[in-house]
Amino acid sequence: MRAVIDALLRTRLAGTAIAIVGAAILGAALAFQHIGGLVPCDLCYMQRYPFWVAIPAGLAAAYAPAGKPRAALLAIAAAALTYGAGVAAFHTGVEQGWWEGLASCSSPRGMSNSLEELRARLLAAPVVRCDEPQWSLFGVTMAGYNFLLSGALAAFAGASAWFALRGETK
């Protein structure tokens, strides 16, 4: 097992792994929304944004030359995923009632052309609260799982960036 982890951390496979796992996490969130019918809140949307940075950075790192170029791309992925883990931790705290959420949780997205159209959109929009989890497994909500997965992936990306910077990659 140690050899597998070592091979992932110290080769261009690290970027590929970050992109694949990131795409799987983002794909799961989108599947819960579009297939499972769960309506995301503002904090749920905010947790998705880092993956739109980490996935391309991971793919670019997989093809970047060893050394500083690869380390920089892996560090970008690590920073984005760390931000995502932070948002997920905040969202988990809101769901658990440890602190209050955003004032904007949640309103319809997009612009309206008139006051009447805005009113109709507001009245027709489903109310999605950030402090009421829509799904959980073993008492852990989607935000909690996102925190765990994003944090682990951020640590992996950071360690891979460190090895790449030290020149210990192939």
Could you characterize what this model shows?
- This protein is mainly alpha-helical and 170 residues long.
- It is 68% helix and 2% strand.
- The chain has a single domain (2-165), classed as DsbB-like (Bromodomain-like), CATH 1.20.1550.10.
- It is built from six helices and two strands.
- The protein has a two-stranded antiparallel ribbon.
- A hairpin with a 2-residue loop joins strand 1 (136-137) and strand 2 (140-141).
- Helix 2 (13-34) runs antiparallel to helix 6, helix 3 packs antiparallel against helix 4 and helix 4 packs antiparallel against helix 6 (142-165).
- 33% of the residues are buried.
What integer value in Å does the Rg equal? 19 Å
Structural class by helix and strand composition: mainly alpha
Helix content range = 55-70%
Strand arrangement, major sheet: 1-2
Spans of at least 5 consecutive residues with low confidence: none
**CATH architecture, please?**
Up-down Bundle
Tally of separate domains? 1
Main sheet, how many strands, which sense, barrel? 2 strands, antiparallel
Question: How much of the polypeptide forms β-strand, as a percent range?
Answer: under 5%
Question: Which features characterize this protein?
Answer:
mainly alpha, Bromodomain-like, 68% helix, 6 helices, 2 strands, single chain, 170 residues
Q: What is this structure, in a nutshell?
A:
The protein has helices at residues 2-9, 13-34, 42-63, 68-96, 115-124, 142-165, and strands at residues 136-137, 140-141. Helix 4 (68-96) runs antiparallel to helix 6 (142-165).
